[in-house]
Design goal:
Length: 90
């Protein structure tokens, strides 16, 4: 198991996502209050790392389509991401 390190923005997005259901991009942006470009960059980084999946599937997203796509945590990384989020609070 590798040790995951999250940036503050990644932590905020994952916290807003939760670990249960898919969340629309518009709801993520509303919850995190991040600028659209920052949100898009963060989501693209999480997608590229495989930590987050999109519905419908995209390798990258644009700010224009972000609000119409749903995002969820990749089930294969749930335990590692939870541990990384807990470590960032310590």
């Amino acid at each position: 198991m590798r040790r995951i390190k999250l940036s503050g923005r990644e932590h905020s997005v994952l916290k807003a996502l939760g670990f249960a259901d898919a969340v629309p991009g518009s709801q993520l942006q509303e919850h995190t209050q991040m600028q659209p470009d920052d949100m898009t960059d963060t989501l693209n980084a999480l997608l590229a790392a495989g930590y987050v999946e999109s519905k419908p599937y995209r390798e990258q997203i644009t700010a224009a389509e972000m609000s119409t796509i749903e995002f969820e945590v990749n089930p294969g990384y749930v335990h590692e991401l939870r541990a990384a989020m807990l470590r960032s609070w310590v």
